[in-house]
Write a structure and sequence with these properties.
This protein is of the alpha/beta class. The protein is built from eleven helices and eight strands. The chain has a single domain, classed as Alpha-Beta Barrel (TIM Barrel), CATH 3.20.20. Helix 8 crosses helix 10. Bound molecules: 2-phosphoglycolic acid (PGA). The site of 2-phosphoglycolic acid has 13 residues, from strand 8.
Length: 271
């Protein structure tokens, strides 16, 4: 399957709480070797290591001029102060971080991140000049109860409340059904398409059709080399947020290759 599109696909690797900075260097080096044969004009690649790895990863990306965007997994919505354990947008920017995951379901479920804090964090990321990847998605129970669209509408609308008008170009959404994360059971490409199309329609009604048309929407949840191509072949799936499979250079680069292969002409030349 192939598609052309004006939205450049993104393959984002969310390392979660895996790999210390020495292991991170090894993974980056292995990935760099493999990316030499990948057409990175067709696909953007980001990695989101733990905070303690950022400086080492930044050093390698900079020194070797790797076509990899440096990302973080989370940050505070506040600028500074007595917030033990938190990291600010400004601190990330000083480390050349360009992109931050906001409201991953693990932050929402395990650390009580509310829709309101997700919106405030997205706002803080944008005002710091970074890109926000806002994660949304339903639980298995919500899915079984037929509430997927309702949950997505609520989460997307709430997050957009933190996005100033005109700043939408620096926002991506990632549809990550919670039942698919780390389970080995990915959404089918049809379900991923339906959910991503719904997210786009919410953006369109909250903002405008043209804003929705350029905003990238990723799928995440047990994305692997063997389903990557089928997922991004869908009209409204503009890339992947990858957890487990991003910890292995071979599988992550195979996914990047699958996404690049799916885009028939260089990104930017499409529809
Ligand atoms: P997974 O995680 O690919 O391991 O399912 C995805 C994510 O949580 O971003």
């Amino acid at each position: 399957m192939s598609r052309t599109n004006h939205r450049i696909p993104l393959v984002a690797g969310n390392w979660k709480m895996n790999l210390d900075h020495v292991e991170a260097i090894h993974l980056l080096q292995a990935l760099a070797l493999r990316l030499r044969t990948t057409d990175t004009t067709k696909v953007e690649v980001s990695v989101h290591p733990p905070f303690t790895d950022l400086r080492s990863v930044e050093g390698i990306i900079g020194a070797d001029e790797l076509p990899i965007t440096l990302g973080a997994q989370h940050c505070s919505h506040l600028e500074s102060g007595a917030f033990t354990g938190e990291v600010s947008v400004g601190m990330l920017r000083r480390l050349s971080v360009k992109m931050v995951l906001v409201g991953h379901s693990e932050r929402r479920e395990l650390y009580g991140m509310t829709d309101e804090v997700v919106a405030q964090t997205a706002g803080a990321v944008l005002s710091g000049g970074l890109i926000a990847v806002v994660c949304v998605g339903e639980t298995a129970e919500q899915r079984d109860a037929g509430e997927t669209n309702e949950v997505l509408t609520r989460q997307v609308t709430a997050a957009l409340a933190g996005v100033p008008k005109g700043a939408e170009a620096s926002v991506l959404f990632a549809y990550e059904p919670i039942w698919a994360i780390g389970t080995g059971v990915a959404a089918t490409e049809v379900d991923a398409q339906v959910a991503c199309a719904h997210i786009r329609s919410v953006i369109s009604s909250e903002r405008s059709a043209s804003v929705a048309d350029v905003m990238r929407i990723l799928y995440g949840g047990s994305a692997k080399p063997d389903n990557a191509g089928d997922l991004v072949a869908q009209e409204d799936v503009d890339g992947l947020l990858v957890g487990g499979a991003s910890l292995d250079a071979e599988s992550f680069s195979a996914m990047i290759d699958a996404v690049a292969a799916c885009y028939g002409s260089p990104a930017g030349n499409g529809k």
